[in-house]
Structure formats: C-alpha cells, structure tokens
Amino acid sequence: xxxxxxxxxxxxxxxxxxxxxxxxxxxxxxxxxxxxxxxxxxxxxxxxxxxxxxxxxxxxxxxxxxxxxxxxxxxxxxxxxxxxxxxxxxxxxxxxxxxxxxxxxxxxxxxxxxxxxxxxxxxxxxxxxxxxxxxxxxxxxxxxxxxxxxxxxxxxxxxxxxxxxxxxxxxxxxxxxxxxxxxxxxxxxxxxxxxxxxxxxxxxxxxxxxxxxxxxxxxxxxxxxxxxxxxxxxxxxxxxxxxxxxxxxxxxxxxxxxxxxxxxxxxxxxxxxxxxxxxxxxxxxxxxxxxxxxxxxxxxxxxxxxxxxxxxxxxxxxxxxxxxxxxxxxxxx
Length: 333
What we know:
The chain is of the alpha/beta class and 333 residues long. The chain has 10 helices and 15 strands. Helix 7 (257-262) links the parallel strand 12 (241-244) and strand 13 (265-268).
C-alpha cells in the first residue's frame, strides 16, 4: 500500500510517498481502509520534531481519519467489516490502510461524508473539551475566539453558539472574519498581522474589550498565542477564563499580576492527553458532537482537499496560516 512518510526531520517538502506492507489486525484491532485524513497544526510540528510526541522514523503524519473497516481482529465486538468509522491514531493516518484499536473508533452518522468525518473530531473535540470542560462556558457569556477562521477556531465559534454564548470572532483579515460571521459569530474584529509593539498591543486590547459589547470577554479561546495573548488577557472581564490552546504565532508570556487584578484563570487545554486519561468522558463528548452534527448545530467546513500524493502541499497550506476551516487529504485505493 502507499504511505506518506517522514524519513528525515524537515518541512512538508521532506515527505515522500512509498510502498509499505499492508497492516493486519492484532487482537482487539481493526484495519481501516482510509478514505480521508484531516490535516491539523500538529502535523506541521511533528515532522520537524517540534511536537510533544516524537515517533520513531519512518512514520506517517495524520492524526485523524475516516474510512471503512476492512478487517476485524480477534475479540473485537461491536465493530464490523463495512462499518463507516472515524479514528484518531495521533499520527500514521496518511496511508491507504491502518490498524487501530477497535475500542477507539467512532461510527460515523448517516449522511456524514468521509471528508467531514476526517475534519470533525480533532478540532471540534479540542474546542468542545476547552469550552465545556475547561472553561465551563455558560449561556449568555461573552466568548472571544482568536484565530476564528482556522480549524479549532471555527469549531470554537460554532460550539460557542451551540452552548449559548455571545461569540466575538477575531482574525487577521476581513475575509477570515466574514467566514467566522457566516459560521454564526455575533461580532467580528480584524487584528494586525505580525509582531506588535506595546502601543499596538494596548490599542488591540481596547478594541477586543469594545467588541465584546460589555466589560470584556468572560472566556478567551486562544489558538494563536504570540503578541495577541497579552492584549486578549488585558481585555477580559472579572473572573474570566483564558484558554491556552495553541501557539502558531509563538509561545507568549505576560505579567502574572494581570491574572490577580482581574481574578482571571489561565487554563491549559491538552485535549489529546485528556482523552487518554478519561476515555469515558471523551466518548461522552464525542456522542454530544455527533448529536450536534445530526441536529445541524455544527458542520465541518472543508476548504481544500488534496490527494495522497500531494499531502505535503496540504501540510504546507496549513503552515502558511492562510487556511479557513479544514484541509483534508483524500485517499483513493
């Protein structure tokens, strides 16, 4: 079978497509014929050895996939050959076939396309865990989403609305803000691109507070980091919750006295580790997301698709931070 492989440390151009052996299911596993693979920010990091996990090479990137169960290992119950499923191996998904634990697969709802299935779990799973479990977002609260047009940001906008929040979408271009407004955001704000000095950060903080339409956001969803972090924190209301989600603009730092003065909580969001530590809670969240999808409250927006042979282009598109919604790699057997 074909597989996209990282054989040396490097960017997207370092990836190669080669023939590898087909997998066979061990006890408790299923083999999935992969149909689509979601591309996420960790894919840009893991091939450069900048991610929390560093798999042994050669390995395939791709943390989430959708496909059809092709073979079932000994002892597997409740999953059958021919089932349409979603899986989250963490990496290894950019292949034609993959073996995963049967207990980890999620059956796809009727009517969900393979592209949507591959684009749903990681971004919406992260954002739902962040908003529901970590921030305990309440109806009527103000939610500020930084990077609101990206994968996790767009999911946060939709889920914030589904949870009854007033959502303020912040992004770097008018096109991205308009995209977030189409997702259901109540208000939008364009922030500067690139580094900001203290004067520019102070100005942005005022704009973020004003855009919330009240005393500042109750919850900040920060999937960007960098120079945007301190202005967002300064804009927050009393007893706010600041969600640390990702750092494509760089790992930020800010004066801790700000958290004291506003009684703000800075809350880390490591969804992958949380799902592993609390599998029952994770599967309950997944069930909630599937219900929301069936009810039309959420819908993954796939903006670009690439065939397996061009997977490096898909990862490069994400690296350029120009993507709105999700990028998906499709696999034709």
